Amino acid sequence: MQVICLIILLWVVVVIASGQSDFEALLGLKKGIVNDPLVSWNSKSLDSNGCPQNWLGITCSDGHVTSITLNNVGLVGEFSFSAITGLTMLTNLSISNNQLAGTISMIGSIQSLQYLDLSGNMFNGSIPTGLFNLKNLVHLNLSSNQFEGNAVSGFGKLEQLKYLDLGANSFSGDIMQILSQIGSVVHVDLSSNGFSGSLDLGLGTSSFVSTIQYLNISHNALVGEPFAHDGMPYFDSLEVFDASHNQLVGSVPSFNFVVSLRVLHLRSNQLTGSLPEALFHDSSMVLFELDLSLNQLQGPVGSITSTNLKKLNLSSNKLSGSLPAKLSSNSLTGNLPNQTSQFLKLTSLKISNNSLVGSLPPVLSTYPELRVIDLSLNQLNGVLLPSLFTLTNLANLNLSGNNFSGSIPLQEVGNITSVEDLSLVSLDLSNNSLNGHLLPGISKFHNLVYLDLSYNNLDGSIPDDLPDKLNGFNVSFNNFSGLVPENLRRFPVSAFHPGNALLIFPYSPSSPKGVPNLTPIEHRSHMTNAVRIALIAGLVGGTAVISLMCILICYRTHWQEYTRSSSIESGAKKGVSGPNKNVDPSLTSRRFDQDTLPSSQLGSVHDAGESSSVVKKPKDFGHPESVKEEAGISSPMSLMSSSNPSPSINQQPPDNPGMLRVFSPDKLAGDLHLFDGSFLFTAEELSRAPAEVIGKSCHGTLCKVTLDSDRLLAVKWLREGIVKGRKEFAREVKKLGNIKHPNLVSIQGYYWGPKEHEKLILSNYFNAQSLALYLHEVEPRKLSPLSLGERLRVAVDVAQCVNYLHNEKAIPHGNLKSTNILLETPNLNVLLTDYSLHRILTPAGTAEQVLNAGALGYRPPEFASSTKPCPSLKSDVYAFGVIMLELLTGKSSGEIVSGIPGVVDLTDWVRLLAGENRSRECFDRFILDRHRVEHPPRVLDHMLQVALRCILPADERPDMKTVFEDLSRIVL
Fold this sequence. Notes:
Layout: H1 2-30, E1 33-35, E2 58-61, E3 64-69, E4 76-78, E5 92-94, E6 99-102, E7 115-117, E8 122-125, E9 139-141, E10 146-150, E11 163-165, E12 170-174, H2 175-179, E13 187-189, E14 194-196, H3 208-211, E15 214-216, E16 223-224, E17 240-242, E18 247-250, E19 263-265, E20 270-271, E21 289-291, E22 298-300, E23 311-313, E24 318-320, E25 333-335, E26 348-350, E27 355-358, E28 372-374, E29 379-382, E30 396-398, E31 403-406, H4 411-414, E32 426-428, E33 433-437, E34 450-452, E35 457-460, E36 472-474, E37 479-483, E38 502-504, H5 529-573, H6 585-594, H7 618-621, H8 624-631, H9 636-642, E39 671-674, H10 683-688, E40 691-697, E41 700-706, E42 712-718, H11 726-737, E43 747-752, E44 759-764, E45 768-770, H12 771-776, H13 788-808, E46 821-824, E47 829-832, H14 843-855, H15 873-889, H16 906-915, H17 925-931, H18 938-950, H19 960-968
Parallel strand pairs: 3-5, 4-6, 5-7, 6-8, 7-9, 8-10, 9-11, 10-12, 11-13, 12-14, 13-15, 15-17, 16-18, 17-19, 18-20, 19-21, 21-23, 22-24, 25-27, 26-28, 27-29, 28-30, 29-31, 30-32, 31-33, 32-34, 33-35, 34-36, 35-37, 37-38
Antiparallel strand pairs: 1-4, 2-3, 39-43, 40-41, 41-42, 42-44, 43-44, 45-46, 46-47
Helix pairs in contact: 13-15, 13-19, 15-18
């Protein structure tokens, strides 16, 4: 009996001791929390076993802590895994979406864990090998942290694992080494990392392919042809597959036997060939979401019999034929089919920016679930369907940029008694040939927020009961007359004019912008004598001030030319040539600093430099071969060993731009980081690679580098003192390297050396010329001037790319200018360079970039009043507006364009002419001569209106999405 009592007593002591141990472990964990919402964690709330009772997020069983669940509770501080290694019964640790930091090196000691979720925090470091000792782990989520390093080995030990999420970190390694290890995993997310390699599987040997249901490997650096050995038939349960935003090539896999696939995303790769028919047949698949946009797919699209498809995006390919689906920016031709009953489940129908002809099929208005119809920018004609305007679920209707005629059929809308049945929010019928009156039925759309009827032939008065919710409104270029309704006077004059000559704006004190009293246009041609006298006096006074400024500017210009000529002549006498180990470093430094390097107007320039705002004649540029013969070649690392690249703003290049030729070091002491699996070379190879200096900017010097494999790179050698510290630099440049777009020259890697000036950014080299050279090259020309159609396409492509940066990546380009826009031959494909480099710069480096933008004419006016101006989405829009003006005028942004040198810049000059209805005088003479018509093409006026809106004050400036949409509506 005594023995039994002793055993019971010992058991009680052990239980209490273990509970006390868990209690102390939790208090130790709490010590690292700075912002502490764990007020319930105190010693007063323990149960009889000594286990925490009613503690937030804590679950106990048999005197032991079994679960810690603290998701989204605002924890801030250091999470100490070592403090909870004694929790021997802990099976669940879930602390997602807080602000916890630290490493997870001790996580392997908690071997009882089955569920581990650390997502949405700031944990860093690499995955410790101890993690793979958690044999019972079923769920592992490390996403959205700051983990890095190679993460490809060890997962095979986690035999119970069903859920794996490593997304949104900086992991690297061959992706197949992970996929080939995991066994019965159901959910895998490896997106937004730096994984490389191909999807050439041999997956049949892994049980992974038979169990996986969700696989997301998007936003990495994957290359090669997906499933080249037809690994797809082995996927028995795959429902979601996302490999978008990589560099995959070849054809789209057939997915013939993947009958469970519901979502397939292969957006933004380099896939070619035709579309697999199996993806569109209801007999084989349950696919309801398919995105193959931003690839190079071509050929016709076969029959679509699937009744399950809800979202189909094949935009930005090279497809032909006809298709009732989202197919923007293709070469689609033909008529809209009338028999499309298979789309009864469609919620969005987009066929914009193609070459569709014919009238609207009546069946279009019978789709019960449609919320979006976008048939803009085609060649559709005929009259509008009255039944379209009575669709109860339709929220967005865009038929702009077509050839529709007749009136806007709103008669049936006027007969609707229950306006709650109408859901229309956005209506765009601009750029058609519609006529007649705007019927009162338009007022029945009480939810209408956006209305654009511009560029038609509508007449009569504007209804005075349009919805008060309108925040976007445009009826310019019509024939409306009468008074502007009071509730519309809050919109700017540009919403009504040009056009509508008989429209009257009575003064309204309640108008936010104080709209002036505008009588009909034909009665506004007379000015009072007092006004004329005031204008004459102002002009005389202004002329006197301008003349004085011109004298000062001319004097300063001549002095700078004199000093620069002296500097160049002095440097030429010291000419550095040939690889010579005995080169005097001081002479090398002087030569590099004094001799202005080739500017962005050089042929085959990846990065547009800022060496000059005035383009030299073609003979000044020379051919690369002759330049090599004159000045020799150097390696990028040898340049680093000589001196630091210095900026040269607004300097003219010499007649014979030279290249440095100095000795290259045998060994590098820094680190080379490559983001692209197709980039396979070492720092030593980069060191000995021949390099040509081809450009210079405020960021540093650009070199064209030839590797041993004859692959060409563009290497930007960053100036000393302008970049952030190593850790922050690495994090930001990796993020920039993950940004992929067909019109973007992506960063492929970087080199970080031990010395301050040894910082390189690597990217692909393109045989392309800058937009500045195409626009501003003087006679005799070597490049053909851009046609009006080519200029419009350049503007649209640039706007599309910048819109992608703004709305999908939420970052500004920050350095938009015509020298940073390359046109790749032979099709003049647009490529943007130098994107978002301000994110890796110090405040001083950013300030210098902004200053340089101002010197070249791209800086927005609001920066002048800011103490620390920084690139923004709005400043991008302004710079894009200046580029648009360059496209329209053929003049450089920094060029003196008025009759009085140095006084009026490009934007002021164009505003002045547009305000005086003399827009024709600002358009490029080449365009006007080529079209040889009495009036400039209507497209020029449309483009000018977009450009002028872009250079409005910041609070009136449109966003880039609006700019892109406006440009996309313009039809030649």
